[in-house]
Specification:
Number of helices: 11
CATH topology of the largest domain: Outer membrane efflux proteins (OEP)
Strand order of the largest sheet: 1-2-3-4
Helix content: 55-70%
Number of domains: 2
CATH class of the largest domain: Mainly Alpha
Shape: elongated
Length: about 450
């Protein structure tokens, strides 16, 4: 079972977003696909590259041209020697047309150029698919960054309120002589720090909202948060070497680099073809008609028709060393393209292995942070009870409260990191599609709203 198939065991599909529901990840991606400038650039580059093949193929197809002319002739000749032909004044017109056909019979450079154009079109197509996958990840990352920032604002506000309550209790206890002034000052310092943290959290949230707006193009509405429970799936197949094999076969960035290498090799062959002979076929049909002659009306006009077929062979002997230089240049470009492929292979292996291990680690992290949060809440309850009984100080309460809110942040962030690393594994393997986002979208709660948040 593939990882994408595993997604299907998740929560049942939720209703589509309505005007009363929050923006979910599916709708965010759909907006991004219509708006994102990076994706539109990749699409335009691909459309432009598609024209390379018909352009190169045109060099091998017949070239037919039709030409015509109309000529007015005014001739004046004076015979000073007194010959048979006397003085001549002639005014006449000549008109005609010609049809020519040129057909390449053998030109290795043209064939190699057509093969190169096919590789370049395939490379552009792969790059376009890479841009689609990158958009999926950029959108998901920006979406979850906003959710994470919203969580952080909520946690920061809750922490500030909790510290504020603790500060009030400390002041009341100090007023009746139960605690020292140092406890009040510790609580005040913690409260002031919480206020500053809230300001920073709000600014981070606004920045993340703007980052998402750049991608989807619309003002960010309330986002559908992640559901409280969703499945934590491990990679399937559970074999990192199998994922590496899949990535080396299907990773789109790696495919694009390999197409680039193929194009470089064909370009090298096309330049070597500069040493090969060229054979062309040329056929022509010409007709011209004149209603007079430069020798006067006595000679009358004429109609002329000519047909010709010729095969022309050109054998290059010496071209100033230009062909040899271009071959050396193309050979160096092949070396460069090969180095790009080698680096792409290494990067792909690193990405897929990191993502595979990241999924395994994220599953453990989510579970561990969840348990840490439970323990932190229990610790806060016990410490607050001890504070009420006089066995714990306000400083002790502040410390355990801080650990609780830190545990909440870590748990929330680990959930988002898990979803992102799932997508990264699919991208590294070359199988990331919009359907993967649709499946993750089922793990959101589009009906959940938090109207207390201000952006």
């Amino acid at each position: 079972m593939s990882l994408r198939t595993g997604f299907c065991i998740a929560l049942s599909t939720l209703c589509f977003s309505t005007s009363l529901q929050a923006l979910d990840l599916k709708e965010a991606l759909e907006r991004a696909e219509q708006y994102d400038a990076t994706l539109r650039t990749a699409m335009a580059d691909y459309m432009a590259a598609e024209e390379l093949f018909p352009q190169s193929r045109a060099n091998l197809l017949p070239d037919i041209q039709l030409g015509g002319f109309y000529q007015r002739n005014d001739t004046s000749r004076e015979n000073s020697s007194g010959g048979i032909i006397g003085d001549v004044d002639s005014n006449f017109t000549t008109k005609g047309y010609d049809v020519t056909l040129n057909q390449v019979l053998f030109n290795k450079a043209f064939w190699d150029a057509m093969e190169q154009s096919e590789a370049l079109v395939a490379q552009a197509a792969a790059n376009y698919e890479v841009a689609k996958q990158d958009l999926i990840l950029r959108t998901a990352r920006a979406y979850f960054n906003v959710l994470g920032a919203q969580d952080n604002v909520a946690f920061t506000r809750a922490e500030k309120e909790a510290i504020g309550r603790q500060l009030e209790q400390s002041r009341e206890r100090f007023n009746v002589g139960l605690i020292a002034i140092t406890d009040v000052r510790e609580s005040q310092a913690s409260y002031d720090n919480a206020v500053a943290n809230e300001i920073v959290a709000m600014n981070t949230l606004r920045n993340n909202i703007e980052a998402l707006r750049v991608i989807i193009g619309d003002p960010v509405e309330d986002l559908a948060p992640l559901a409280e429970k969703f499945p934590l799936l491990l990679p399937e197949p559970a074999n990192i070497d199998e994922w590496q094999r899949l990535a080396l076969d299907n990773n789109l960035s790696l495919k694009a680099s390999r197409f680039g290498l193929s194009a470089a090799k064909e370009n090298y062959e096309a330049n070597r073809a500069g040493h090969y002979p060229i054979l062309n076929l040329r056929a022509a049909h010409t007709f011209d008609s004149a209603d007079g002659s430069s020798f006067g009306g006595a000679f009358g006009g004429s109609d002329n028709t000519a047909n010709s077929v010729a095969a022309q062979l050109n054998i290059p002997i010496y071209q100033g060393g230009g062909v040899t230089s271009r071959v050396r240049q193309a050979n160096a470009e092949v070396w460069s393209a090969q180095a790009v492929v080698d680096q792409a292979i290494r990067t792909t292996v690193q990405q897929v292995r990191d993502a595979y291990l990241g999924v395994e680690s994220s599953v453990s992290s989510v579970r561990a942070f969840h348990q840490a949060l439970i323990s932190a809440k229990t610790s806060v309850e016990a410490t607050e009870a001890g504070f009420e009984a006089g066995t714990r100080t306000s400083v002790d309460v502040l410390l355990v409260q801080g650990r609780q809110f830190e545990a909440e942040r870590n748990y929330a962030r680990s959930r988002y990191d898990y979803l992102l690393v799932l997508l990264e594994l699919q991208r590294a393997a070359g199988s990331l599609t919009r359907e993967d986002v649709w499946q993750i979208n089922q793990w959101l709660d589009p009906n959940a709203r938090d109207d207390t948040r201000t952006y």
